[in-house]
Amino acid sequence: MSDVKGQGPSRAWSFAKDIILVTLVLAVASGLALAVTLLSHPTAEPAPSAIDFSLDIRPLSGSVGKGSAATTIVTATAKSASVRDIWFSCLDAPSGTACSFSPTSCRPTCSPELLFVTSASAPTGTHVVTVAASDGTVSRTRTFSVTISDIPSPSVFDFSLGVDPGSGSVSSGGTVATNVTANLTSGSAHAVQFSCSRLPTGTTCTFLPPSCSPTCEANLSLATSAHTPPGTYAIHVTASDGLVSQTVVYSLAVQPSAVTTLTFQKGDGGAYSETDDTTLRNDTPDANYGADLEFSADGEGCMANFTVCRALLSFPNFIGPNNGQVPENSTIMSATLDLNVSNDSPDQHLYQVSESWSEATATWNSFVVPGKPRTKGPTTFFNTTLGWNVVDITGIAQNWVDGDANLGIFLRSDFWNGSYYSSSESINPPKLTVTFWSPPPALRQATDSSAAHPGPSGFRDVPSLSLPFVSSHASSIARDEMRPLSPRSDSVRRQLTSD
After folding, report:
1. How distant, in Å, are the alpha carbons of 37, 153, 218 from that of 190?
2. pLDDT tens digits, residue range 108-144?
């Protein structure tokens, strides 16, 4: 009994300690679990606010005619603290239309202008167009309606210009008139001012009235002076309101009011009729034939078999400032050579010479290229007949009075039976006939002292030059009356002719 009583309290205390120990273990375990949970799941920070904006259009509707444009305002309003640039575009726009934004992108809050453009092919009726705005992640849309009608919007001002008649002719010092018409083609009419440009020397233009509102008409008067050179000029007639200009061309032909014709032929008593000519022969390349009664252009057998003859001809004094001469800077209306031919042939070639020579010293070998003096410009081709032949050298004479050195002409032929011409030492010497218009002395001096450029670009036009031509008429002088260069040459020619 005593043993039982003695063990009772001890066992109760042991049980109590076990309970306390278990409780402590559970408490520690719970604390450890809470610690692990806290370490594994820390407290989250507040999330930043999202980017956001709204979109609006004012006005929401409008109307526009075909081929015109209308505008409205698109407003993007920021709805968050953080914003980024957004870009704009149109969706569902009808065919034949287009829209653009100014600016094309912006950062809310902002209000770009929307321009809605229609073409003539845009469909009529009311259309809903969607406007989209996006920063790449956030997008917003808004619609507006537009009514497209057939009534076109007011167009810009434009007009056409014409002259009738489109050309005219006048003598130097005279006046010619034409009508200028400005026709309204679009927009509202307002005044245009008339003017002229590219007028020849000494010419003025006057419009009556000087301005008008298309559709309207004005009279144009072009007044030349004695100083206006002959020629054909492209006058530019212009009408302008300061922004829109139209130009048409009026062709003005100026005829010389006083034309002079001079002839130059050795022995005619003229102070400036000196004539130089000679033959170049390859068989006697160092011989001079300036005193012979004929000069010749023959491709083969001119003086003997396989002999080539070529010729030079010059009127060295016909250009100058004195009476009886053709002044420099004249306008050559025509210049012709009269040549008496004793042996006719085809295939004669004529050139402008650009290498110096003398009648008394010129030989086949006296030129840089033997038998071929330097030349310039185009070649004149012609055939000859027995008797007097007329060859046109207007273009070459114009070159001379315009400043080229007057070194004469060069004649050659590739044909076996060439032409033989009476020389300046014969009784039928060559003759030069020049018809020309010469400007007054004051104008000649101004031209000489200025860097004037001939032709339309420098407004010193000359008449269009005719193509070289040749003509002939019967001669009363028979070939037998011509004195031969030598008995041998005459016999050779007779033999060739008879063959």
Report:
1. 89, 18, 15
2. 999 999 999 898 889 999 999 999 999 888 999 999 9
Is 206 found in the same domain as 132? no
224 and 293 assigned to the same domain: no
Chain centroid to CA 387? 49
- Cβ–Cβ under 8 Å, residues 243 and 257: no
In 426-466, alpha helices (H): 441-449
How far apart are the C-alpha atoms of 51 and 53, rounded to whole Å? 7
Helix (H, G, I), strand (E, B) or coil at 14: helix
CB 223 within 8 A of CB 196: no
Structure tokens at 405: 């050195």
Q: How far apart are CA 474 and CA 491, in angstroms?
A: 24
Q: Which of 149, 140, 117, 142 is nearest to 128 (CA)?
A: 142
> Rounded to whole angstroms, how far apart are CA atoms 275 and 337?
12
Domain count, the chain: 3
User: Are 308 and 300 within 8 A, CB to CB?
Assistant: yes
Supply the range of the domain harboring residue 482: 260-437+469-498
Of 231, 255, 279, the one marking the end of a domain is 255
Residue 403 and residue 342 in contact, taking contact as beta carbons nearer than 8 Å: no
What does the block give as tokens for 54?
A: 């709204």
What is the length of the chain? 499
Say what the pTM is. Answer: 0.51
**Residue 316: exposed, middle, or buried by beta-carbon count in 10 A (0-12, 13-18, 19+)?**
middle
Q: Is residue 113 part of a domain?
A: yes
According to DSSP, the residues that pair with 236 across neighbouring strands are 197, 249
